Amino acid sequence: MSPVLAELIDALGADAVLTDPDLIQGYRWDWARDPDAGMPIAVARPRTTGEVQSILRWAHRHGIAVVPRGAGSGLSGGSSAVTGGIVLSLDRMRAIEIDTASRVAVVEPGALNAEVKAAARQHGLWYPPDPSSFEICSIGGNIATNAGGLCCVKYGVTTDYVLGLHVVLADGTLLELGGNRLKDVAGLSLLKLFVGSEGTLGVVTRAVLRLIPAQQLPSTMVALFPDVLSAAQAVVAISSRVRPAMLELMDAASINAVEDHLSMGLDRSAGALLLAQSDLGGAGASAEIAEVERICVQAGASECFRTDDPAEGEAFAVARRAAFPAIEKRGSLLLEDVGVAVPRLPDLLAGIVEIAERHRLEIPTVAHAGDGNTHPIVVYDAADEDSCRRANAAFAEIMRLAISLDGTITGEHGVGRLKRDFLPEQLGSDVMDVSRRIKAALDPLGILNPGAVL
To answer: Can you give the pTM of this predicted structure?
Structure first.
């Protein structure tokens, strides 16, 4: 063992530093399985902010790369390990405290999204951001990517609920930003700078999250369409008139993949499915769902189903959330989360269909349709060189399609490493230059998550 690594073990204790290659292996990738992930020299697993500071001071002193990691559920290679560096896993920092008077949750980064929701629920409160992986993803990872989810069309994304952060910089400096105040505009908005920075500017060790009163039981509508284009056109019309609590889309391929996976009785003949929910309660919910149904019928829906039964409504939400693991059974995946303004959603989805046909690939697509955030999932055979070539070409074309529609290469998964080369095409040279100057100011040695984003 090198003296440098021995120094880290002496500072943290042997139980907090993994050096066994077999144990390290499980920390090399996130869910995207980046093929270029490296082999780190160790995995550090701190329990406190002070230990995170010690790790970064050590890394800064020796010029060693540090890749922060949450639950490993990321979808863009944002926590791919770097050869010769360390993985800083925050999975042991799991504390959650609910402050009912201030209506906030004070949370460590390793706490799971579902655990925060459950803790808030005990006090009649709700933490709205709800990625499809909410049961397994961590708050630290959600903050790193500014994660969204199914309810975000009405309630916003992670940044809308972050009131305070403790962030450790590359040299070990601790910044304490914000707090339990609902309004605070003193100084530069550094709090927002770190949300969505994907571990490239600092390591979050504590978050103050805004909570709101618990959601009312939802009313649900499911509409079936002959094709994805008519469903997208319905989304545009719905979004211009009402603001449902959920508005999700599944195309035919994703419907059939989920039905193969869960056998839920979904209609395999449908070209697309829209799932809408209202949480207004009572007559308000009935009126809102009725308006959504009217618009869907006008847009060409072949069938609409309405229910006020929360269990039935949740079953459809479960089907939507199951899309990724269901589609994974069909082959290797390249995952995208491109987004456009809602009026351009039909153009985006039509373009994805054309790309799939031209490259002879299956690209099932699900979407947080109400905010224009789509998830085209390129399915390919990793053992077939031609299939890999076509998949990579389709992946790139979909991102460029989104950019051409004045959209984005990522709505919630982050840039990570898999989309880094396309970021300048969206942002332009001036924005990239400013971004790199900020990175250099906060991390002059470039040790924090090197190779990610910038």
So the answer is: 0.95
